[in-house]
Specification:
Layout: H1 12-22, H2 31-54, H3 60-71, H4 78-88, H5 94-102, H6 108-135
Helix pairs in contact: 2-3, 2-6
Length: 144
Amino acid sequence: MWESDPIVYSNLVEIMRKEANEGSSKKPTSCSRAALWLTRAMDFTLALLQRLVKDMSQNMEQAVEESYNLTIKPWHGWISCAAFKVALKLVPNNNTFINVLAGKDESHQMVQDDIRSLISLLIPLLSQLHSILELYEVHKLKST
């Protein structure tokens, strides 16, 4: 779509507006649906980071599952839920995860501070995205 008119379709809202006007926003291959699932993935990430920053020693598998249940599971069908259960077994333990985020010379406190900063950026961004998704009535779509 962008390639057809880069000026008109220079941002996501314009693309979603065009899809809504054409009646294609709810189709499986629409940009609107892609934006919806990207937003849900970021909702999941935000929920997970909020859990971790609250308690850096929390069990990762439990934190991931609780975040998934809150944010994405309501929109998944049974096949996707089953796939998630399998993927959950691949979640690293808490120390491994934090150490990967920390890099070489960063303390756990620095990681926690970085996570807090990211959370403060994600909250208003996600609020705007949810408003846009509701405006174009794609916010309640389930997986196909």
